[in-house]
Design a protein that fits this description.
Layout (H helix, E strand, L loop, with lengths): L3 E3 L12 H5 L10 E6 L4 E5 H17 L7 E5 L5 H11 L3 E4 L6 H11 L3 E4 L11 E3 H7 L15 E7 L7 E6 L2 H4 L1 H8 L6 E4 L6 H14 L2 E5 L8 H7 L4 E4 L1 H7 L13 E4 L6 H11 L2 E8 L3 E5 L13 E2 L4 E6 L2 E2 L6 E6 L8 E2 L3 H6 L1 E2 L2 E10 L5 E6 L4 E3 L2 E3 L1 H8 L7 E10 L2 E9 L6 H9 L10 E4 L26
Parallel strand pairs: 2-11, 4-5, 4-6, 6-7, 10-11, 10-12, 12-13, 13-14, 27-28
Antiparallel strand pairs: 1-17, 2-3, 8-9, 9-20, 14-15, 15-16, 17-18, 17-19, 19-22, 21-22, 22-23, 24-25, 26-27
């Protein structure tokens, strides 16, 4: 049998359609119910569904009154506050295309994005780095919009562009991933295929408001079914999260593996009687970490695999547990294959994980590299760039990347991007970047370089801090007499971790 898992086509997205309208479809019937609690050290900031909907649609009105039009692109340079999801959905509600970005990006990185996108405006917190733009809308202006009359939802073709996210491309240049309004319709496949989410759930996500993992799993998906989202306030210490989960009666917890790892360092971990299970995504979850969480809390962690181009589409759930270290199986409604050079490989054989091009969650294109998007298609399949093997029952085991992309702290980072920034340093003649394991199941980015002499690590930190977001910056630097290369002189990035002996900062 060939490695193709076909649940059959997903239910078609209705038309006309609007992503924000879909997210808020339960708001009126749950008007007084808590939609969002921002969990502070002493008290929480609560938003019910009526308040949330009014703020989002008022923001939509304000953006239109500010001169923006449906189809315009706006770059979001906002911090880790509730302003972020309200502005994001407010823009989408009226057909404006938001581009959510990490607040850690540098001015230079945003300058490239502005060049790529030609945004009509920037939604701007002055404390968040950003290249200059003639049309900036401030946080106070956004907050004032919430009291305006509600805008009407801009309904239309579900295939039209709704939002753009950036991901590291294999070329080293971040790619602008354009998604359609239908992307939210596809997320329904996660509700049973991963979350086991119910309207009565209180889902706590440990991430920041301006992380796409938080926007989707932590906010929009609970709101779509009328559940309650719990988000820790900015600056919350990870080790205090167990206390917040208990105090606020969380039933589901979502985080990247590194958060679980740090939480488990507590020796006085409290009982969590209302927690049903945890969710993990962003990087591969180690079996040992999953076991440690179960031993401590008595609950399971369910893992999901995906990418910026299609969110998550392989996972396991309470109804469909994974075997051993497998990722799980394709979610209901997905069509997944493991491909070799000539198409699907036999079951059990290694190949590239691919998703059918008709999946409603798959991106439209890369706005700044449409040819690269086309190059990732093999017939009817979109190639993820990751290797895997499919068992007879459809369960898929992850076998690593077929390129050199790094994953540190849940963020995917291109080594080419890190190398490009460091190669401009006058004391460096050649540089290579790789993820290295500093403790069991804990990886950081390290830079390996050649040059006349070893350079001061603090000075290198300062140098890259002006060129790369914090999550892209190396945590260690290794000076070598020569970098490992193949017979053709090409850098062997996969050989670099063997040279790592330094202790990261």
């Amino acid at each position: 049998m060939l490695s193709v898992f076909d649940h059959g086509p997903a239910d078609p997205c209705p038309a006309p359609f609007n992503l924000a309208a879909h997210v808020l479809r339960r708001a009126d019937q749950n008007a007084g119910k808590t939609a969002l609690s921002v969990l502070g050290p002493a008290a929480s900031e609560d938003w019910n569904y009526a308040q949330l909907k009014a703020a989002i649609l008022g923001t939509g009105t304000g953006l239109l009154r500010a001169g923006l039009n449906p189809g315009d692109i706006v770059l979001m340079r906002l911090g880790n506050t509730v302003d972020f999801p309200i502005a994001y959905l407010g823009a989408i509600a009226v057909g404006i295309v938001p581009v959510p970005t990490s607040s850690q990006l540098t001015e230079a990185e945003t300058a490239q994005m502005i060049s790529d996108l030609a945004p009509a405006a920037i939604l701007r917190d002055p404390l968040v780095a950003c290249a200059p733009h003639p049309n900036e809308i401030s946080v106070p202006a956004l907050q004032a919009m919430r009291d305006l009359p509600p805008a009407a939802f801009d309904l239309g073709d579900p295939d039209r562009m709704a939002y753009v996210v950036y991901t590291s491309g294999t070329s080293g240049k971040p790619r602008a991933v354009a998604h359609a309004h239908r992307a939210i319709w596809a997320r329904q496949m996660m509700v049973d295929g991963w979350y086991a989410l119910r309207p009565e759930d209180r889902l706590c996500h440990a991430g920041a408001f301006n992380w796409t993992y938080t926007l989707g799993t932590g906010l929009m998906d609970p709101w779509t079914i009328g559940a309650t989202a719990l988000i820790p306030a900015p600056g919350t210490e990870i080790t205090t999260l167990p206390d917040l989960l208990r105090a606020h009666r969380a039933t589901i917890f979502a985080a990247a593996p590194g958060v679980y790892r740090k939480m488990l360092q507590r020796s006085d971990f409290p009982d969590l009687p209302e927690l049903r299970h945890g969710l993990s995504a962003g990087e591969k979850l180690a079996h040992s970490l999953r076991a440690a969480w179960h031993d401590t809390t008595g609950t399971a962690i369910y893992e999901a695999y995906g990418m910026s181009e299609c969110s998550t589409f392989i996972s396991f759930s309470p109804a469909h547990p994974a075997r051993g270290d497998a990722l799980g199986q394709p979610q209901p409604g997905r069509r997944i294959a493991i491909l070799g050079e000539d198409g699907p490989v036999p079951q059990g054989q290694e190949g590239t994980i691919a998703i059918h091009r008709d999946d409603p969650g798959l991106m439209l294109t890369y706005l700044n590299a449409p040819d690269e998007a086309e190059a990732r298609l093999m017939g009817d399949w979109f190639l993820t760039g990751d290797q895997g093997a499919m068992a007879i029952d459809g369960q898929i085991t992850y076998l690593g990347r077929d390129d050199d992309m790094m994953n540190a702290g849940g963020y995917r980072v291109s080594p080419v991007e890190v190398e490009s920034a460091l190669s401009q340093h006058p004391g460096i003649t050649q540089v290579g970047a790789a993820a290295v394991e500093v403790r069991p199941d804990t990886f950081v980015i390290a830079a390996f370089y050649t040059g006349p002499e070893e350079l001061d690590a603090d000075a290198l930190d300062t140098y890259v801090s002006q060129r790369l977001a914090r999550y892209k910056q190396p945590r260690a630097y290794v000076h070598l007499p020569a970098l490992p290369t193949g017979g053709n002189g090409k850098l062997l990035r996969r050989a670099l971790p063997a040279y790592f002996k330094a202790t990261p900062k």
